[in-house]
């Protein structure tokens, strides 16, 4: 025992007060802190909230009804701290330890908890097996057998955990190699620029300085991306190593009571971290080269070859005729080479080619706010026109096929709703509808519109998008100035709060997704030319600004050939990557 105490000595001090643990409470991340320290930390920063972030690793723990007091006490750690304290004071008498208290049944005086109820995941005494944990509703076994059984269940998880750690280490090494390759390319590119500049130094010094500054800025920006990626991988690696080490230590040193008390938390954390996959980084980030200029008269040093977005064309003007729009509210890709535009105040949906050639018109009763296309042989176009129904049109002949509500039919007339957004889960063709009045999105079967799920949201779903790979739903909140990235059950995984020139934006508008992340239209109130198109990853991290100085843009979508189409008031702007 003395050897074990010596090896874990550095872990006997609370990271908040830097003193020995007093009534240590354990968080979901397996870090422990004094109860009073946690209470002071919670009330001073997070009073009233249902979760508390760990002061060390920032991982959040959901609090029970009694808040800090209701968290599990780390009796194993208490026992070790008390034994160390007793040794330091050279006390000859042996005090009753929390471990001994914990082994006694609090419900039945004098009874020892010799059994473990597998149904309730808690230690029980002989009387409990007859009174409150009796068979067949409860299944219990002897505590020693339970300890051996669940120790083995955790040990069975260790090999997969070790494999995960190796994969993370490999991913970290791959990322480091990519960064090294990029650094080499930077050096080669800088040299190429300088070699060309040496020939006409006196005439081209300004161009050289500017271009190298661009390279260095690019290096700084991309290195930041690599560093963030490696930091994420390192955090995942350290979390798994930490949890594995703690789990092994508790299995090897804790008593049955202590182990079984901590087992539900350890098991839950092992399963949770085991399911995490390392984030991927775009291999194109290491691309960089220099193309020397050929002109001799007016010196042209050359240019850096970078892939970036730029507007390739714009079509449409204000009006009511073909090729004209009276407020293009939304845009979606219907089929290869074709777009549909919500011509809001003309009460119509305009079908056109990606080049703007008029192909057809669908008349609607109200003002079309949003729509989405189901890409299957039936070729259906779903339209929201301000009513309480989703209208479904046949894109082959532009006729209305059916309509369906987002609440049960008998509740339509007495339910207030405001349907603003549509999206499609392409893997199943499930229809997703955003209702800003009820603050929900609803999911519907594509064949008949039957309601499958109703998901509450925290941000009003003015605009929706679905990531095809993860089926995460992106909710853009218009005048809230924020965007939520949620899982399929509505749990928020990340919140994006865009800024322009360091100031929070006033409006988050159209949003779409592809394999590279989230593309979002943001707008700063006041002037008409403050629109930006931002690019984020699915974890909400800012990657790039594609365009700025734009007019009052609304909807945004990807075309079948990877272009971006943006509804821009009375026109449609098309962007491609060059």
Automatic annotation (TrEMBL):
SUPFAM superfamilies: B-box zinc-binding domain, NHL repeat, RING/U-box. Keywords: Metal-binding, Repeat, Zinc, Zinc-finger. GO terms for molecular function: zinc ion binding. Pfam families: zf-B_box, zf-C3HC4. It comes from the Eukaryota. NHL repeats lie at residues 315-355. InterPro entries: 6-blade_b-propeller_TolB-like, NHL_repeat, TRIM45/56/19-like, Znf_B-box, Znf_C3HC4_RING-type, Znf_RING, Znf_RING/FYVE/PHD, Znf_RING_CS. Residues 100-143 form the B box-type domain. Residues 14-58 form the RING-type domain. The keyword Transcription regulation does not apply. This is Tripartite motif-containing protein 3-like.
